Amino acid sequence: MFFGNEGSFDYPVFTEPIPLPPITEPFRMYRQNINPVIRVSSIDLIGATAASVIHIGSTCHVQLEARIKHIRQLGEEGKQAEKKEE
Fold it and tell me: How many domains does the chain have?
């Protein structure tokens, strides 16, 4: 959960374009849609991580990207421990 005041997203990792390597190997795909309708009555999910996608249905083209930067914000105890190590 992000409230908006926890930190800054002012890092290049969030704005730089992600290079996509070209797909050069050939592939063959076979599709048989006997019933083109997808019906789902219920889904039981144990969990999903922060950069996950749960997709039910059909999509012609999908392009997704995930950008993660790990930031550690130490409390007062962590700051005191750092000073002792110096």
Answer: 1
Q: Which domain holds residue 9?
A: 1-86
Question: pTM of the predicted model, to two decimals?
Answer: 0.41
Distance CA 62, CA 85 (A): 49
For residue 77, pLDDT over 80 is answered with: no
Under a CB-based contact definition with an 8 Å cutoff, are residues 58 and 38 in contact? yes
Cα(69)–Cα(9) distance, integer angstroms: 9
**E-state strands within the chain:** none
Q: Alpha-carbon distance 15 to 17, whole Å?
A: 6
